[in-house]
Amino acid sequence: MEEEPCPIEVIFNWLGVGQLLYDGLTKRDFPMVQGVVLMAGVMIVMLNFVIDILYAYVDPRIRLSR
Questions:
Q1: In the chain, where are the structural domains located?
Q2: In 19, 20, 26, 47, which residue has its Cα 20 to 30 A from 4's Cα atom?
Q3: What pLDDT, in 10s, does the model give residues 40-55?
């Protein structure tokens, strides 16, 4: 696994984040692992929020409010 990039590095283009996660797991540095997982989760939530907002602009049938 050390030679191949982690899927997080490929998808989000965050160089070194996969290696950081791998090192945290192998050295049992759980706060580091929690930080990486939290960062990835926040990025996914923010991306989903932005996509939902953009849908309202792309498709006028969708409203942001009732």
A1: 7-58
A2: 47
A3: 899 899 999 999 888 8
